[in-house]
């Protein structure tokens, strides 16, 4: 059952050069107790679609159309000043870079205590006790001492764990993780991902995990939505996306897959890459948005835009040629 559902969401930004359609008709859902991975290159609309849920948009950003359904409410209709009862309480966010999210002049204790005092009405002393519990929960040694420290005194991995502790303080029903391991080395990244999976099992929180790294998605996600140019181009379970048995895939997903370095790749083999770059949102191509970079594109792709259609139960693809074996280089 869908706990959080986006239906035909359109999020735009007003600029001097025109309207940027950062999210253009996106639909996806996060089921209770599951992790939805959102994957795609930078500029594909992953973060904007997620930040639209809590209306954490820049001043020139606005939701032009669509629905965001959570717990029986359409969050689009809720005024921004009333979103505080949702933010950090029922839906929390782990941001990409903890050093820009943590206030450098306040101690960890003061920053971690805020959710408890604001949303749960705890006293300062009670909140301080909860802070130590949360720091211990995310497996940081000597939590009493760490609570008194400041962000600059902690390592990158410890700061990210503090961000996770802050996001999970009120036991939210949905956790939005916006590339939470991008700035970390692979060893710390593995520890953070393992920790998030353990906390998901312990607390029962559903996770919306945003990343450009398919390897991370393979490890974390139950379901996957692949985004490109503000649209979802493929949706399926992680087993379907990463499995070798499915006869369907979007060419963009295929391109992301083959660009991943593999241990079994023969020495000297050149890594395949998707040619070109994501088009500027003010200069999108006429037909399929991926057509200029797609080796399978035909005249039909360049003139007409495909719809997101179900090719098999639970598997949706936005492509005129979703069957792997029949499409040929255009």
TrEMBL record:
Residues 4-254 form the ABC transporter domain. SMART domains: AAA. The keyword rRNA processing does not apply. It is found in: Cell membrane. InterPro entries: AAA+_ATPase, ABC_Ni/Peptide_Import, ABC_transporter-like_ATP-bd, ABC_transporter-like_CS, Oligopep_ABC_C, P-loop_NTPase. Transmembrane segments: none annotated. It holds the Pfam family ABC_tran. Keywords: ATP-binding, Cell membrane, Membrane, Nucleotide-binding, Transport. PROSITE patterns: ABC_TRANSPORTER_1, ABC_TRANSPORTER_2. GO terms for biological process: peptide transport. The keyword NAD does not apply. One of its GO terms (cellular component) is plasma membrane. It is a peripheral membrane protein. SUPFAM superfamilies: P-loop containing nucleoside triphosphate hydrolases. Coiled coil: none annotated. One of its GO terms (molecular function) is ATP binding. Belongs to the ABC transporter superfamily. This is Peptide/nickel transport system ATP-binding protein. The lineage of its organism: Bacteria, Bacillati, Bacillota, Clostridia, Eubacteriales.
């Amino acid at each position: 059952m869908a706990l959080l559902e986006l239906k035909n969401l359109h999020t735009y930004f007003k600029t001097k050069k025109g309207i940027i359609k950062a999210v253009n008709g996106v639909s996806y859902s996060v089921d209770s107790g599951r992790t939805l991975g959102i994957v795609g290159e930078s500029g594909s609309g992953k973060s904007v679609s997620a930040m639209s849920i809590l209306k954490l948009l820049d001043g020139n950003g606005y939701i032009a159309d669509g629905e965001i359904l959570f717990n029986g409410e359409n969050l689009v209709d809720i005024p921004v000043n009333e979103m505080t009862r949702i933010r950090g309480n029922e839906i929390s966010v782990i941001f990409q870079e903890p050093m820009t999210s943590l206030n450098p002049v306040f101690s960890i204790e003061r920053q971690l205590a805020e959710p408890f005092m604001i949303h749960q009405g705890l006293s300062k002393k009670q909140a301080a006790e909860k802070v130590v519990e949360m720091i211990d929960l995310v497996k940081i040694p000597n939590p009493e001492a760490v609570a008194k420290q400041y962000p600059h005194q902690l390592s990158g991995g410890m700061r990210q764990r503090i961000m996770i502790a802050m996001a999970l303080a009120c036991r939210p029903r949905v956790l939005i993780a916006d590339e939470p391991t991008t700035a970390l080395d692979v060893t710390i990244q593995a520890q953070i991902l393992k920790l998030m999976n353990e906390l998901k099992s312990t607390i029962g929180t559903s996770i919306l995990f945003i990343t450009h790294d398919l390897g991370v998605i393979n490890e974390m996600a139950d379901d996957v939505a692949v985004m490109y140019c503000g649209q979802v181009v493929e949706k399926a379970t992680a087993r379907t996306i990463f499995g070798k048995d499915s006869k369907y895939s979007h060419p963009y997903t295929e391109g992301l897959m083959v660009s991943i370095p593999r241990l079994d790749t023969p020495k000297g083999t050149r890594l395949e890459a998707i040619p070109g770059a994501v088009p500027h949102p003010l200069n999108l191509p006429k037909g399929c948005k991926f057509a200029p970079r797609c080796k399978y594109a035909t005249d039909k792709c360049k003139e007409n835009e495909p719809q997101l259609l179900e090719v098999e139960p639970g598997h949706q693809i936005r492509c005129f040629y979703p069957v792997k074996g029949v499409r040929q280089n255009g």
